[in-house]
Design brief:
Layout lengths: L4 E2 L11 E2 L13 E5 L2 E4 H21 L8 H22 L7 H16 L15 H22 L1 H8 L9 H47 L1 H4 L6 H38 L4
Parallel strand pairs: 1-2
Antiparallel strand pairs: 3-4
C-alpha cells in the first residue's frame, strides 16, 4: 500500500506510509477565498459562519412567525429548545432576572449547536468551532456581559468582593483574592473558549483519521487484496465515533451556554 493517509499537499508516497502536514493547523485552515467583496474575502469558514447564522434565524422565524395553539412537529421542537434555555438554563441558573439574558443564551446555544453539527453534515464535515476565533469571540461576548453586569449592578464593590473575599479567613484573603481575580478576568473567557475548541478539534481529527483510513484500505483492495479487510474495523469504529460526536456537539453547546449563565449569575448575585 503506497499511502494510508494523505493529509498534506506535498508528500513522497514512495517513502512515506502516513503523510502528515508540516503543521496540524493546516488541517483546519481555509485561506483560499471563495469570492471577495472589496477587501473582504469570503473563505469557507466565513461562509459557514453566515450559513449557521441564517439557519438559526430561519429556524426561529419559521417556527414562531405564526403562533398556533397546536404547533407542528418543527414548532414543538423549537418551542422545547426555547423553553429549555429560558427556564432551565437562564432562569434556573441566574434566577428570575435570567429572563432578560435568555435571548443571548438562546442565540449562542443555537449558533454553537448548528456550527458543531456542521462536522456531521455531508459535503461540509467541518465544525465551525474547531477554529479558535469562533469560540474565542463567543467567550468574549460572555466575558463582556458578565463583567459589565457585575460593575453596573454592584459598582466597585464587585471588584472589591473578588479581590478581598470576606468569607475567607483574613490571613488567606490576599491569596484567594489573587486567584479569584485571575480566574474571573483572565481564565474564565480563555477556558470557556478552549473547552469548546479542543473537544470539537479532537472529534474532527478522530472522524477524519478513522473514516479516512478505513476508506483508503477499501479503495486499495486491488493492490493489497484480502488485507483490505483491515479497514473494516477502522470504518466501523469511525461510524461509532460519528454517533458519539453527535452527542458531543449537543453537549458542548449546552455546556458553553450553561457556563455563560453561571458566570452571569455570579455577577448578578456576587454574594452567592
Amino acid at each position: 500500500m503506497d499511502v494510508l493517509i494523505l493529509a498534506a499537499e506535498a508528500c513522497d508516497t514512495a517513502k512515506e506510509i502516513i503523510c502528515k502536514p508540516g503543521n496540524v493547523v493546516e488541517l483546519f485552515e481555509h485561506k483560499e477565498a471563495l469570492f471577495s467583496i472589496g477587501p473582504f474575502d469570503f473563505t469557507r469558514t466565513v461562509f459557514l459562519t453566515f450559513l449557521a447564522m441564517f439557519i438559526v434565524l430561519a429556524a426561529l422565524f419559521f417556527a414562531f412567525r405564526k403562533p398556533k395553539v397546536v404547533p407542528g412537529k418543527f414548532g414543538v421542537v423549537m418551542e422545547s429548545l426555547v423553553a429549555f434555555v429560558r427556564d432551565d438554563v437562564a432562569k434556573g441558573t441566574i434566577g428570575p432576572e435570567g429572563s432578560k439574558y435568555a435571548p443571548y443564551l438562546l442565540s449562542i446555544f443555537l449558533f454553537i449547536l448548528v456550527g458543531n453539527l456542521f462536522e456531521l453534515t455531508p459535503f461540509i464535515n467541518f465544525p465551525l468551532t474547531s477554529r479558535m476565533a469562533i469560540p474565542g469571540m463567543l467567550s468574549l461576548f460572555t466575558y463582556l456581559i458578565f463583567v459589565g453586569v457585575g460593575f453596573s449592578k454592584n459598582g466597585l464593590s464587585y471588584l472589591w468582593g473578588i479581590i478581598w473575599p470576606k468569607s475567607v479567613p483574613i490571613g488567606l484573603r490576599w491569596l484567594v483574592g489573587l486567584i479569584e481575580f485571575v480566574s474571573y478576568f483572565f481564565l474564565r473567557p480563555l477556558t470557556l473558549a478552549v473547552r469548546l475548541f479542543a473537544n470539537l478539534v479532537a472529534g474532527h481529527l478522530m472522524l477524519t483519521l478513522l473514516l479516512g483510513s478505513g476508506w483508503l484500505f477499501f479503495a486499495s483492495v486491488g493492490d493489497i487484496g484480502v488485507r483490505a479487510v483491515i479497514g473494516l474495523p477502522w470504518f466501523a469504529f469511525g461510524l461509532a465515533i460519528f454517533v458519539f460526536e453527535f452527542v458531543v456537539a449537543v453537549l458542548q453547546a449546552y455546556i458553553f451556554t450553561l457556563l455563560s449563565a453561571v458566570y452571569i449569575q455570579t455577577s448578578v448575585h456576587p454574594e452567592h
